[in-house]
Specification:
Aspartate Aminotransferase, domain 2; about 40% helix; coiled coil; three-stranded antiparallel β-sheet; binds 4'-deoxy-4'-aminopyridoxal-5'-phosphate; aminotransferase; Aminotransferase
Length: about 425
């Protein structure tokens, strides 16, 4: 396909007219397609409907340990829920807390407690410093960045590479600044790039010397079992690596069944060293008398064990893999060789990350919106919603039907080309 950069002004103008015509055609269809958030589609949710039949009014709700799940108590979760979900984080059952319905909620509360009370190893609560900072490998998950903004934590961008954050940058930064207290990591099939951290990156995170004695890795393994291929990416165990490196308290691990069972009605988990878990459990008892054990039980009865949960994820992959394939097929046929965009080809997770020409992402997203296609806001994948190169667009293919998705991506491809042509024309005019 023709490299757009090699086209003359006349050729670019012809192309622009042609693309504009296509765009107007799509616009006249008055589409309303939404790919803004990574949500499971109804067919994926249907797979978990059996969970609602696991408990009837005459069911026994007495847990393995004899706890009546209908009543208060069990601050850190049922033993059987720990047995089901500890393998998700690859921790032991005494290194996990079963939470409520949202891992983001657990991350929020973990930071909140650290701000007010501190964490083991620290001299004072994080909130007592005039300012603390977090490293934010970017592009990254927008809600992590919103949490930092909410708590007034300054965000420092670290580049995401093909195998995780740029560790040269990370090591340098944490070695010289005591107020850098944390780093956000989505280590498997990262949001949005689909990157899985290499063993070397995991080891370097575990071993690095940090000026802050109370530095924490926020290891958000939201996509631990969300494979799209039969040969899943392998992720080294961060808690083992940190223990081996002599920093057992460094990682806080998070996960949930949000995109396994029902988002908003799933079960969230947090893992860490025994010391961190004990410390957290004590603090938790001020916040709640206990989580929703009936929902934990439903998950245990439905999945039975971790193998059951993994089998369930294969059914999810059967539904969403064709959608990822469709997006990649359209990007290949519409954009490949034109040198106006590059995109990720993830082995799992929920997103495809698209990079367009520098300075074009905002315009592309706005143009698509005008034609009825809503995408994640440009810039959302960077701290403070500011993409320094204005080029990253997060594609969330799971929610729309295959037909809707095909149409939305066709519209997007026209928008990308149109804005790129306009950008190239501007450059040529200046020259
Ligand atoms: N972490 C990441 C990386 C996510 O992509 C998401 C969901 N989009 C979450 C956390 C939210 O998880 P939960 O529903 O458990 O709060």
């Amino acid at each position: 396909m023709t490299d757009f950069n090699t086209l003359s002004v006349v050729e670019l103008n012809d192309l622009k007219a042609n693309l504009q015509e296509k765009y107007e055609e799509y616009k006249s269809k008055r589409l309303s397609l939404n790919m803004a958030r990574g949500k499971p589609c109804p067919e994926q949710l249907d797979l978990s409907m059996g969970m609602l039949d696991t408990i009837k009014s005459d069911s026994s709700l007495i847990s393995q340990e004899g706890i009546d799940c209908r009543n208060y108590g069990g601050i850190d979760g049922l033993v059987e829920a720990k047995e089901l979900l500890a393998p998700l984080l690859e921790v032991s059952t005494d290194e996990i807390i079963i939470g409520g319905n949202s891992s983001l909620n657990m991350m929020h509360d973990t930071i909140f407690r650290a701000m007010f009370k501190g964490v083991p190893g620290g001299d004072q609560p994080w909130g007592h410093y005039p300012k603390i900072k977090f490293l934010c490998p970017s592009p990254g998950y927008d809600r992590h960045f919103s949490l930092c903004e909410f708590f007034g934590i300054e965000m420092i961008i670290v580049d995401m590479l093909k195998d995780g954050p740029n560790m040269d940058q990370v090591e340098q930064l944490v070695s010289e600044d005591e107020t850098i207290k944390g780093i956000w990591c989505v280590p498997k099939y990262s949001n949005p790039e689909g990157v899985t951290y290499s063993d070397e990156v995991v080891d370097r995170l575990a071993k690095m010397e940090t000026k802050a004695k109370d530095f924490r890795i926020f290891w958000d393994n939201a996509y631990a079992v969300h494979h799209l291929t039969d040969k899943p990416d392998q992720l080294k165990n961060i808690l083992h690596a940190c223990k081996e490196a002599g920093h057992p308290n460094r990682p806080f691990l998070f996960g949930s069944t949000s995109k396994i069972s029902f988002p908003g009605s799933g079960v969230a988990v947090m893992g860490s060293s025994k010391e961190n878990i004990q410390h957290t459990k004590k603090q938790l008892s001020a916040q709640t008398i206990g989580p929703d054990k009936i929902n934990q039980l439903r998950h245990v009865l439905f999945f039975k064990d971790f193998e059951g949960l993994k089998d369930h994820m294969k059914k999810q992959a059967d539904i969403i893999k064709p959608k990822f394939d469709k997006v990649l097929e359209l990007f290949d046929s519409e954009l490949e060789g034109k040198h106006i965009a590059t995109w990720s080809k993830p082995n799992g997770g929920y997103f495809i990350s698209l990079n367009t020409l520098d300075g074009t992402a905002k315009d592309i997203v706005a143009l698509a919106a005008e034609a009825g296609v809503t995408l994640t806001g440009a810039g959302a994948t960077f701290p403070y919603r500011k993409d320094p190169r204005d080029r990253n667009i997060r594609i969330a293919p799971t929610f729309p039907s295959l037909e809707e998705l095909e149409l939305a991506i066709q519209v997007l491809c026209v928008c990308i080309q149109l804005v790129s042509v306009e950008k190239l024309l501007k450059i040529k005019e200046v020259c």
